[in-house]
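Q: Convert this sequence to structure tokens.
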Amino acid sequence: MHWARGLAFVLCLAVVPGVPNIPSAQSAQPRDIAIAPADKDHRVALVIGNGAYATAPLRNPVNDARAMARVLRVAGFEVLESVNLAEKDMRRAILQFGHRLQPGGVGLFYFAGHGIQVNGRNYLVPVDAEVRSEAEAEVEALDVARVLARMETARTRLNIVILDACRNNPFGRSFRTAVQGLAVIDAPAGTLLAYATAPGKVARDGEGAQGLYTGELLKALPIPGLSIEQVFKRVRQAVQQQTRGEQVPWESSSLVGDFVFAAAPVPIAPGPVARVEPPGPVVREELRSPRGSLAVSANIPGVEVWLGDRRLGEARPGRALVVDNLAAGTHRLRARKAGHKEWERDVQVVADARAEVAIDLERFVESLRAGAVQRRGTDGAEMAYIPRGTFTMGDAQGQGGGESVPHAVTAEGFWIDRTEVTNARFARFIEARGTAHGDGQRAASGREQHPVAGVTWHDAVAYCRWAQKRLPTEAEWEYAARGADGRRYPWGNAWEDARARFRGNRGNGATAPVGSYPNGASPFGLLDMAGNVWEWTSTLFKPYPYVVTDGREDPGASGRRVLRGGSWMDAPGDLRSTFRDTGGPGERSATIGFRCAQTAD
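A:
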């Protein structure tokens, strides 16, 4: 749901008759010439070809994808290749692709198959999709913005996206609009977007084994020394000539860097081969750190213990957490439990000895009880109190939006709505303001207690301000969802279908009334923190670690905002409490809503 970092290339490839003639790397070069790799960065490509559709099958995508995979391997890419993928398998492939990408490397995504545009957004169609209306596109198909999001979070130096998806809309008869082709995407700085034909136009599937545009691209990519601009110039000239001007590739570019798929040939310098003497022995001195151990116990059960930034586990009476082989010196030990004051102390570890520490937590003396409903907002919504606490933000095993950088974050005490803002409450806001925001004003009878959806980030900010509240920060949202014990889901570490509204139990519907899954409550008693609708936060999407002072909490800054919690159309992996997604502040979706927060008095 957001743009890729650095240089991103989005190509929409037409497929009309034509068979590529890919030159051999050996036959194309004279003697005494060495072919150097284009660069030394890590290159990963995901190639998908979908043709086996029940409605409007295509015969060329599988061939095109396999040919592209062969050429990319020659160009030094590690290629993940798949054909005829269902929706679930496409999402899994995207996640695996994101996991393989490396910071500073190059990522390339290639898709051949059906693609459609709905409300200015482009969707890639899996072979099992049943898109009966525009509203179902975001559920049954894969938003191109999600692919870009995975690539951005990997912090690659260069991202290339190739979309061979400019055919007729196979579901057009059930759509209210007659929009063709793919939508225009403006090119931000350092971006090149290339379409095989003008945006909104349609390309044929083709009669031959492969498409004309694809074939010309496959011919140009392996040519040593060609810049990306030169590659597109060759392809554009060839396609325009062979179609007699009927198909003219269209490009938008604001590139500031250089990229080549294959480096120019480098002559081998003549001369004798120098003999390399093996290195002699090297002597170095190593400082060996003496080791000791630490044993930690607590006066009450369920006390979370941390040694520096490392979570040790739960300490309880009668049993101790023991850390062996610990370097001698001073270590910071922290402990916490909901409803109790945080405990923190420096512990001295001595070599060949055990340090014993007994943690004695005190309950808060204030009347506020963690997670209890202590007040109602001016909009009438129940609010729960979240006490000040330190927790681990992120998940080392996660892949959602760059979450895999766990780090300690301290959240100050705050209040937060127990449920998402409902259609009924949002309708009262609309009536009070006399303005139209989102879809809450159009809530059908019987859906008053469903979460409002289709609201922009600006809509959510306006509502919270009207209710004398604010949107929660990303850090506050995650702490409220998973607690200090770092749960994978609000209720625990194992997924259970009966605890949240998600794609596996939505049936033919969408959202459920707020609070319909009380057994899915978070440690602080909050409901629907997993599923139902994505929730806007106040936070600009930036890489971890989370730092309040780096501008990500600037309400006036422009940029994409963080979404949390997953929705009724998502799989369990996207409903984890650490999963990050993003949306443009003016974006609307039937899967996005919000809840409000309030700074503690």
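Residues 1-38, 173-178, 364-369, 436-443 have pLDDT under 50 and may be disordered.
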